[in-house]
Structure formats: structure tokens, C-alpha cells
Amino acid sequence: MQEKPLHRIFTAVPRRYDLVNHVITWGLDSGWRRQAARECLASRPRRVLDICCGTGDLAIHLARITDEATEITGIDYSQPMLDIAGVKAARAGLSEKLSLVHGDVASLPFPDGHFNSIGISFAFRNLTYKNPLTASYLEEIRRVLAPGGRFIIIESSQPELRLIRSLFHLYLRVFVANVGNWLSGNRGAYQYLAESTRRFLGPAEVKDLLLKAGFSEVSYKPLFLGAAGIYTVSG
What we know:
There is one protein chain. The protein has helices spanning 7-12, 17-24, 28-41, 57-65, 79-91, 124-128, 134-144, 162-184, 187-199, 203-212; strands at 47-51, 71-76, 98-102, 115-121, 145-156, 217-223, 228-234. By secondary structure, the chain is α/β, with parallel strands linked by helices. The chain has one domain: 3-Layer(aba) Sandwich (Rossmann fold). A seven-stranded mixed sheet has the order 3-2-1-4-5-7-6, sandwiched between helices. Strand 6 (217-223) and strand 7 form a beta hairpin. Helix 2 runs antiparallel to helix 8, helix 3 (28-41) packs across helix 4 (57-65) and helix 8 runs antiparallel to helix 9. The radius of gyration is 17 Å and the shape is globular. The chain starts with 6 loop residues before the first helix and ends with a strand.
């Protein structure tokens, strides 16, 4: 598989990855993913895909709260991340309810319209921030999403109030970059995280990007004063 942007970062980063995520969000990320999982399942989908599933947190939340009739699949191009996801699913007794696939969002190994719901947690930024493959990623997501299906995105955002936004950006530069490096030993990964989050699109820009990509409707719910948010996107 041809190496894509950020592949090296997310192959090297798994050491203490979950711990760092919990620390830099003050433990709020777990609750946010649970909200996203509920949104993914709100339409009672038969098949759900977690793209860029990483160490499996969203996919595992999905598997925990759905019934046996719903197929849950997670896909990521970092095999070390998937290895951790597999261990976590086994420990939770969810291995039979969750399939993990090593693959690339630019070429998803699934038929057209296969999934009724698709989720992504804190990785949409990686697909769209200064990424030359953004159009390919969004086209593939639309291709495998069934007509009338829902695409749920939970991602960092830009607070509307200028003071809150400035404080958030300061937090990213001072705390996230340095604490992420200290806990993980991977300076480049958390410098990228802080910088890409600080410069990422606001809600109106994300909505415009998705509508131009061919999605029909986008709604947004801010979280934690707008530092993050959940997008509900109609195929």
C-alpha cells in the first residue's frame, strides 16, 4: 500500500496514544465519543463503519451499545493502531461484534452504498487539513454510504467567541504540544496535532466543504464552548 500523508506519524504514535488523548482533553474525549456513537446509531443502521478508527474507541463504543444484528467495522491504515484496537476489543469481550480492517480511506475495500452509517472521531482533520487527497477521501466516503445514510464527524473546532478561541489556541501551543511530547516521546506527532487543530476549519467552512463534496445536509452541535463539535451529515 502506497504511503499516504501522515502515515509515518500514525504508525509511530501508538505508544501511550490513549493516555495522551485523555490527558489533553481532561478525560472529556470518552464522553464525546459516546455521544458520537449514539448519533451513528440513531437511525438504527444495519452496517456501521468507523473510518480512521485508530485504537478503536469509537468502534468499541458502537459495539457496546448496539445489538447483534448491527455490523460494526473499523478501518485504519496504521497496523500498530489496529493491533491495539484488537486487544481492547478482546478485553471488552467485543471481538465477535467488531471487524477491524487494515486499509486506506482513499480506496475503501467495500461495495458502493454498503454502510448505512459512517463515523469518524478526531481524524476528519487529518483527512482535510492541507491534505492533497481530501477530494478522494470525501468521494470514497460518499461512495460507500448508502442513500439516505448518515456520516457523523466528531472533531476539534474553532470557538465562536474570540477570547475563548485565543485561550484555546494558547492551550494547544503550550499544553497539548508539550504534554503530548512528554508523555509519548513523539514530538512531531503532537506538534502536528496542536498546529493542525489551531489552524483547522471552523463549522461554517466544514459545512461548505462537505456540501461542495456532494453531501446533501450538514448540522453542527458545539462541544466544550466550541473547542470541538459533532457534525451530522446526510448522504
